[in-house]
Amino acid sequence: MRFVQFSDVHLDSRLGGKLGLPEEKRAVLAEDLRQCVSRACDEASRFEARLMLVPGDLFDFETVRIETARYAAEQFSTIPDVHIFIAPGNHDSLCPGSPYLPDSGVLWPDNVHIFRSESFESVIVDDLGCSVTGLGLAHSGTSSRLLETRISRPAMPVSLLVFHGSRDFGRPPEKETVLPFTDAQLLAQGFTYAAIGHYHEHAAILDQDDKVRAAYSGCTMGRGVDESGVKVVLKAAIDSEGTVQLQTQELAPRRVISACVDVTGALDTATINYRLENALASTGARDSDLIDLRFTGRAPLSLSDLLSSIVPTGEYFHFNSDASSVVPDYDLDVIASDSAASTVRSAFVRELLARRQAADTDDEKNTITHAIYYGLAALDGRTPEPRCED
Ligand SMILES: [Mn+2]
């Protein structure tokens, strides 16, 4: 038996965050998120899946438009032979007005089952010889440990669990805790496989024999700086022994790519550009991607204007740079001549600049330069950090 699993699409969510996306690009990303749903349906057909498991956060309840919920419902109607199970999460919880509720004006096709109970319920899929057990979060912030006690379900050759929950291991600090569980509690339930949503990184949960027993697909497409890298949906096959084989597949039209460029010792545009291109090349960034670039290291204060004007030579869907991590360096000549402000600082720099000028070799000059910066950091009460220059 084959199934497709995806979650955390967050249709119609607020996009971009720190990426500084203009309105028109946010509109493109919103359309990309809808594309993820249609591509997941196409993929289910191609993969000849008979099941689709959607463990929550298909959309963001606060901002979802009814047209978008209808769009998702229409996409699901294009694969009528696929049994689709949705377990609402904390962002698409079943609060009053939810598009999941029968009076919402969204017509979910017959092949879609939405878990609307706050306690676990099971559906038997006779033609597949399996049961699917799930629940829907009625509001965000359900912190009950429902997996502590055994979840009852019908005896079927294959039993699947679908829910939106927080694995105790690996909870990102900013994530709301919903239906928390430990791996041991989940494994003790004895389901053939559990499809879990909420965390935006793909992760599989294995039993003591290293068999896959559960997985987060992660979000379907990155939407901001904290969702960088390749995002996937899962395609899975369960054999007659109950062994689950997972494959990941990227369906998102674009990625958020995070990169770092250390500007220490780079004093001109050409050097910074060179480092930028190297950094981007190592990420495999494509034209369609969003680049989130962070400048790091130590640089003269005068470089900050230059950094904000640095852009890659390649055309990307979006490029955003952030120089706030760069530690300001010093203008040594100004400090040397500014004895009124700080006599010790000024005298220190003047003395070492004189020694540097008198130094015989480049090595010696370099060493003195390092000594100046270490000394200034110490005099200014900062921890001197190792200086590595080209
Ligand atoms: Mn969630």
Descriptive report:
By secondary structure, the chain is an alpha/beta fold. It has 3 domains: 248 residues, Metallo-dependent phosphatases (Purple Acid Phosphatase, chain A, domain 2), CATH 3.60.21; 73 residues, no CATH class; 48 residues, no CATH class. It is 27% helix and 21% strand. The chain has 8 helices and 17 strands. The strands form 4 sheets. Strands 4-3-2-1-11-12 form a 6-stranded mixed β-sheet, covered by helices on one side. Helix 3 links the parallel strand 7 and strand 8. Helix 1 packs parallel to helix 2 and helix 7 runs antiparallel to helix 8. The protein is elongated, with a radius of gyration of 27 Å. The termini are far apart. Bound molecules: manganese (II) ion. The site of manganese (II) ion has 7 residues, from loops.
